[in-house]
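Case study B.
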Amino acid sequence: MPLLHRDRGRRGPLSVLAAAGILLCLLPAHAASDKREAIVLRRSTNPAFDLNNGTVSAANVELVQGSTLLKASKADATGWVDGKYENSTWKLTGDVHLEFNGAKLDTQSATVVFADGRLDTIKVQPAPAQAAQQKKSPVHLEMKGAVLDAQTATVAFADGRMRNVQTQGAQGLPAQFSHQFKTSSKRVHGRAGRIDYDVAEDLMRFSGGTWYALGNTEMETQVATYSFSTGVFKADGEAQAILRSEERVPAPSTPNRATAK
Amino acid sequence: MKNLRVLATVMIVALAALAIWVAGIKPRAGGTAAGNPDTPGSAYDYDARDVLVRQMGPDGALQYELEAKQVTQQPGNGQISAQDLVMHHDPAGGAPDGANRWTLTASHANLPESGTAITLQGQVHAQGRPPNSRAQISVDTDLLTYNLETQDVSSDKPVDFSWGDSRFHCGNLRMNIKLGTLSVESECNATLAP
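Model:
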């Protein structure tokens, strides 16, 4: 029997306004990605082209396509045919910062694929040796008030719009998630071997050693979902819930006027 | 009366002939600076107007073809210069006037007498196609060197270039047409076409 946990909060007029604001912020991003747009290379240093093989390398790259931003210390692109990036693959390395559909992704190495002139996939898969050297998670993704840290990530797009995000942890290093639900004062925390985000359903899917916490409530299960729109965490299958009693803060004592300075 | 009419006709014809002969003479004297050929005190080894130069290589093959409003050679250093020129170059192995022909236009150019590098100055425009590309490369700058032998094209001035519909603005340019390589040693911004 599924175990449900709803984050209960009151929805005031401010939260409605905030939700409308978020929606308005997302609208141009969707509209901009509807058509095949030129990429503006805002900045690059020492670009080098192999015109015969369709490759380009450059340093300090900053690319913009509509509302999508790609920044990296180095970029190596392949599949540039006749000056067109239409079906090209960009390997970005060093301080990679990506912005798309209201999400922000920071990592040290990412592969960005354009298909038919539109953003198709973003893959973050550091080499094992590289991942082992990094103290923090190689993938840091922020979107819709959520923060996701993982070892690998794949962002898939359809018609230039983000369709889903798949992230994975490594052994002993699960993918981590936290989210501030719009009407809650507390932040949801979670971790799992794999955390995926489905844009159409606005749903996070956790699988493998899933742990979830909200305030004094903790839950452990294998497979679970969390809805961004409703704040409902739903465990599928066996789950173990822990409800911790509130730690009461002692009431402050009245200052002694005689000893007070 | 009839004799007078014949005499007048002969005189008119003679004057017209004299005028044509005077107009046909080009002064040998000319300015060292382009565009001022009448300055006294300097001289060209030669000065040709509205010319078509076809330079052959050692193998007898056409090296380049150049159309210019004026071509001059300085007496001191033998430097040959061209003004308002259009140059065509078919890279080695390519058919004359073939798909890989490069066309360069400029306000001024220094042509090699024995070397192989042409320096083009002023509103320089170069256009051609790399060997394996269907799209043309087009370069606009103020100063460009084109080495006919190595097929190196370079400029240390700001350059606007395009490859197909993608357009770039960079601080300089190094390109080898034969190898199909293009590099920039500066900052660049661009609009990349899908």
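The first helix of chain A runs from residue 13 to 32. The remaining cases will be described in the next quarterly update.
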